[in-house]
């Protein structure tokens, strides 16, 4: 069995949160590659290997998606809906990382298949620790679904 690379898709429009997440992954050395989408439309292009990300057509999906809810163009809930509705992507773990603590967002995300929902800490050190904890769990400790590495595209 071939190991799935520790590729992470980070979907984040806040430049400060984006940089902190990159720092956290770099420090922890969990992810071999962190790809970034700055809005929901770009995330969908990445996930479905279209547009600027069409070259990803033969590459396996990411091992983990960190997904904000409040995104430009297409919100994170719609990205989650499309990702979890696709047979080739539904096994990919999705951690919602958001500033929203609203019950309706939490319920909607879990209903659509989010694997985890975390409210972003405002303290920088806590934020770094949360990202490192996510990486430790999903990229080191968790055994991925063997079907998650299969590329199934129409």
Automatic annotation (TrEMBL):
InterPro entries: CheY-like_superfamily, Sig_transdc_resp-reg_receiver, TCS_response_regulator. The modification 4-aspartylphosphate is found at residue 68. Residues 7-135 form the Response regulatory domain. Gene3D superfamilies: 3.40.50.2300. SMART domains: REC. This is Response regulator. Pfam families: Response_reg. One of its GO terms (biological process) is phosphorelay signal transduction system. Keywords: Phosphoprotein. Transmembrane segments: none annotated.
């Amino acid at each position: 069995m071939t190991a799935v690379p520790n590729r992470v898709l980070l979907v984040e429009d806040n430049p400060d949160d984006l940089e902190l997440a990159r720092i956290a992954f770099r420090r922890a050395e969990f992810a071999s590659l962190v790809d970034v989408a700055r809005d929901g439309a770009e995330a969908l292009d990445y996930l479905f290997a279209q547009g600027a990300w069409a070259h990803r057509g033969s590459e396996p999906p990411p091992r983990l998606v960190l997904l904000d809810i409040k995104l430009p163009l297409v919100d994170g809930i719609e990205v989650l809906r499309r990702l979890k509705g696709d047979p080739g992507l539904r096994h990919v773990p999705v951690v919602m990382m958001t500033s929203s603590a609203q019950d309706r967002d939490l319920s909607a995300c879990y209903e659509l298949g989010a694997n985890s929902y975390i409210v972003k800490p405002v303290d920088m050190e806590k934020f770094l620790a949360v990202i490192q904890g996510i990486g430790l769990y999903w990229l080191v400790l968790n055994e991925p679904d063997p079907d998650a590495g299969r590329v199934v595209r129409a």
